[in-house]
């Protein structure tokens, strides 16, 4: 018997032999990814309070900013309070996608924390399934949340004024942003590991990103340095693009990034994915050492 | 003879400054039960985790069911089941959903996984609770579900890491029965335990592990004979009675009475099947001599005795299964006397 490969190096790269067997690999990955998607959706169904609570944050924001502060926050670009609510809704959609980081990260941290992950790893399971199942279930959940929020928007007088195709493109951008946020959540969940700490880490990150953007206020009304931050905030690009595609009032602005909201709303999520996916996968692999 | 179904050679694993495994060697024959016996911190769990592909060894190699655990972990995973110390089930899912999920991940199709789940629920007496969340299960039910989850595809090798720690006697018996059934059907079982009694009841062979290495291996009977076998213990009320009690015990036969003044105890070794004869003999002699004693009973060697016998020192201080040891001896005494 020879010494094991990588003897003495605990963090050595995964050897080729642990790759899925040729042929059935992709099928198995898809199959197991689906099993884990179903499992995560069962969690949502079995613990609906968590899903409802995560919908409460955006709904509260509609109430607070649309009605409580609405009249005071209206600005020349939007007209009166009703115009402001039309201006607000695309921002609320993006906020919901942003705050979903917390739910994803909590789910991932809970999985990493529990004995059940040991059983998963002792099975001939496609290890990618834990992550792909999480991402897929969260995307399905995002569809539901988007539906609820769109319905809520229609109730308070928001509507899309462009074509149905443009509106669908806007929803597509929202879901792309959500997909990027899912991977931020997977990374944070694996980095923090403690489900009770996840909220403490996520909110201080999500809050400034949400507020320092074009969600509530045009950057022209902010002090110059903050305006630059708000214009270049990925959240702003997605919000601006959604407003454009829905045909809702926007913040205007002559800067390059404000003029190119649509491509930026695609580029930002892709950049976030490029930054988050590799370390998330690396952290996930390290769980098994 | 068949090639052993589990082999480990020179396994080493270090966590920070703690050497969890330090040259661990083992061979387990197909269809047998091996108990890995040792105190907390001896390296039992690390050994199981490496054999079940959950951790990589720093050095050494291991083969399970014909495949190298480091090089072909997926091949090994297709052939093993693992039940750990903590029930590894999904708390939010129902018992049935858990078994369906694990069956699917073990390579069963959707329909086959459902069929298998229902079979296992029936076999482990969980059919009534099948549609309840695992979170609401009692400790015994959870452990049974956990065991069922490791059997979704009849494993060649089953690893049980302290399968009955923390269970009440009834649940413990239920787990033991299930293990015997599996072994009857040809599964090889490696179980870790802190209880000599458990090793005794279930295992064909016992390997004693200490500080990350196997220090003794053999049948339970061989190990016990190495530490002196069963004893009759007589506890007196007064130190002054000890010599008289020792005299009475000597007249009843058995081994040379050992007098332990520190706990007012006289201990007599039993040879083979003469346990009841020796016990009743001593009772008769004590009665004839008019000696009143505090306690008398048959005592089986405990893990502590095994360690003392093998290493000359007790197992990790305070880490031994203290609740198990006295309970096991009292239980044994009661059983023998009423037999």
The major sheet of chain B is characterized as: 6 strands, mixed
| N to C succession of SSEs of chain B | EEEHEEHEHHHEHEHEEHEHEEHEHH
User: How much beta of chain B, percentage-wise?
Assistant: 15-25%
- N-to-C SSE series of chain A? HHHHHHHHHHHH
Percent helix of chain A: over 70%
Mean pLDDT of chain A: 85
Radius of gyration of chain B: 23 Å
What integer value in Å does the Rg of chain A equal?
21 Å
Q: Tally the helices of chain A.
A: 12
**What structural category characterises the helix and strand content of chain A?**
mainly alpha
What is the strand arrangement across the widest sheet of chain B?
6-7-8-3-9-10
Number of strands of chain A: 0
Q: What is the quaternary state of this protein?
A: heterodimer
Number of domains of chain A: 1
| Biggest sheet record of chain A | none
The outline of chain B comes out as elongated
Task: State which percent range the strand residues of chain A make up.
Answer: under 5%
Low-confidence stretches of chain A: 1-23
Shape of chain A: elongated
Transmembrane segments (chain A): 51-75, 87-109, 142-161, 167-190, 197-216, 265-284
Region (Disordered) (chain A): 1-24
Subcellular location (chain A): Cell membrane; Membrane
Keywords (chain A): Antibiotic resistance, Cell membrane, Membrane, Transmembrane, Transmembrane helix, Transport
